[in-house]
Automatic annotation (TrEMBL):
Gene3D superfamilies: N-(1-d-carboxylethyl)-l-norvaline Dehydrogenase, domain 2, NAD(P)-binding Rossmann-like Domain. This is NAD/NADP octopine/nopaline dehydrogenase, alpha-helical domain protein. Residues 3-106 form the Ketopantoate reductase N-terminal domain. The lineage of its organism: Bacteria, Bacillati, Bacillota, Bacilli, Lactobacillales. Residues 183-325 form the Opine dehydrogenase domain.
């Protein structure tokens, strides 16, 4: 398959390398203006070293560029967006003039990015797919080299419009990521694990992050019984919103188990704790990491706005947004996710 990966960070680099090693033709597009050493290495060498279970594999990348027209061509079959959700609206607006009929766009993960494509979905028969999370948890260790930390056993996706679901499933299964399919892209957005653990974990870790000057491992330390009470309270609010939308509820830990465990009879919380202690990435290293500046305005503010619209109480969510505002002296609601509820209703009615 001809695939363009948008984003040259951790996730985009790992997916691009993995798909190339699986035999797909892969191009990469960098959307920001910052020319970091990793991007410059990729641009010059067009190769990525993927490290999995201690084994190194060298993947060839067909093209690495900042030129949209060069990698978003008519023969591009699949576009995978792997940029922070803060930039989704801008990136999607920039790529829309280069999209062609019958292409599939996979957003990893989404937070209801489908909304930004809606004027073109019918016109060009696009299929928009949103993922709960990335199939590969990874970190760039040096320019041109990415190390796999963990790989999901299953990867739930939402597809819009549903009329294209069979086509999307047939094509996406060629990637061999054990995709499963949800009822809606909105389910995928609200089951994004970062909405829960990144926000609660990083905000509750603020003193430790600042005290340790970057020598901190959130997943291994922060989820004590008291902090877990906050996780469960926020998770309950998320599920109440899903129920009011007529969608399927699922606890954070059950969703985690479904993605991470072969054996679904195992205890859900233990699956999460096993990941946290043995496979999670180190960090965050600053109190204003993407765990906050991305997942508060585009995760928590999204949930809060849905709750207000649906008249579902979200006290915990609101408290966390207020806390983030105080800690970082920002107004995350001002820069956060604003939903077009007419478009939301179109997706729900699909």
């Amino acid at each position: 398959m001809n695939i363009t990966v948008i984003g040259c960070g951790n996730g985009g680099t790992a997916i691009a390398a993995d798909l190339s090693l699986k035999g797909h033709t892969v191009k990469m597009l960098k959307t920001s203006d910052s020319y970091n050493p990793h991007y410059m290495y990729l641009k010059e060498n067009k190769k990525i070293t993927l490290v999995r279970n201690g084994e190194e594999q060298l993947a060839d990348i067909n093209e690495v560029t900042t030129d949209y027209a060069k990698v978003l061509t008519e023969d591009t079959e699949l576009i995978i967006i792997f940029v922070q959700t803060n930039y989704h609206k801008n990136v999607i607006e920039n790529i829309c003039p280069y999209l062609h009929s019958n292409q599939i766009v996979l957003v990893e993960p989404g937070y209801f990015a489908t909304e930004f494509f809606m004027p073109l979905i019918v016109e060009k028969n696009l299929t928009i797919v949103e993922a709960e999370s990335s199939p590969i948890d990874c970190r760039i260790s040096k320019p041109g080299r990415v190390e796999v930390l963990f790989e999901n056993v299953r990867n739930p996706l939402g597809v819009y419009p549903k009329a294209n679901k069979d086509y999307a499933e047939e094509r996406l299964n060629e990637l061999n990521y054990h995709f499963t399919y949800l009822d809606s892209v909105i389910e995928a957005a609200l089951h994004n694990p970062n909405l829960i653990v990144h926000t609660v974990g990083s905000l509750m870790s603020t003193p430790r992050i600042e005290k340790t000057n970057g020598e901190y491992w959130m997943y291994k330390e922060v989820f004590t019984p008291s902090v877990w009470n906050i996780v469960e309270s926020l998770d309950k609010e998320k599920n109440n919103v899903l129920i009011k939308l007529g969608l399927k509820e699922k606890s954070y830990v059950d969703a985690c188990k479904y993605r991470n465990a072969e054996d679904l009879s195992l205890d859900s919380k233990q699956i999460f704790m096993n990941y946290a202690l043995n496979y999670s990435p180190k960090g965050p290293f600053t109190s204003d990491s993407r765990f906050v500046i991305e997942d508060v305005p585009f995760g928590l503010v999204l949930l809060e706005e849905l709750g207000q619209h649906l008249q579902v109480e979200t006290k915990t969510c609101t408290t966390l947004v207020n806390l983030a505002d105080l800690l970082l002296q920002k107004d995350f609601r001002k820069v956060g996710r604003k939903i077009d509820f007419d478009k939301l209703q179109l997706v729900l009615a699909d």
